[in-house]
Amino acid sequence: NTTGNTLDVAIRKDGFFVVETPNGQRYTRNGRFETDNQGQLVNQQGFPVLTGADVPLVFAPEDTDISIARDGTVSTNNGELGQIKLVKFEKAQNLQKEAGGLLNTNDAPVNVDDPVIIQGALEGSNVQPILELSKMIETHRAFDSVRSFIDREDQRQKKMIQQLSPRVGA
């Protein structure tokens, strides 16, 4: 989704941005960034966004014409400042959600070889509410149908047991 905000960035392929929190590095795909009063590029919670050198990206007060290249390299009228760090994980299913949309894992991150970042855009939701609601209704109906079948089968077995049990005792 295009926002027009110079500091908003979307990841086109695999990968996560890296931010520094009081509890260590955390990961996010949310590229809604801004600058804090020290000129650091930060996420919405105020955590610094890290570069490939694991240091915060810092803008000088005189920096203008901010440009973020497709590989994450940040430049201004005063030159190149650094490259936004993008990492990936071999087992993304091990990522654990934390507050503020951040992710954490004990697995070691791997740098993304060929990052693709889009400046002035944010990643949209991959959920389509109407479609998902339709799927949920369809699943609920299928569940009800199976449950009804199981109930009928249970009743049939009980009836058969009742009919056969007097004969067994005779």
UniProtKB/TrEMBL annotation:
Flagellar basal-body/hook protein C-terminal domain residues: 119-162
Membrane spanning stretches: none
GO cellular component: bacterial-type flagellum
Domain Flagellar hook protein FlgE/F/G-like D1: 10-75
Signal peptide: none
GO terms classed as biological process: bacterial-type flagellum-dependent swarming motility
Family of this protein: Belongs to the flagella basal body rod proteins family.
Name this polypeptide is given: Uncharacterized protein
Native organism: marine metagenome
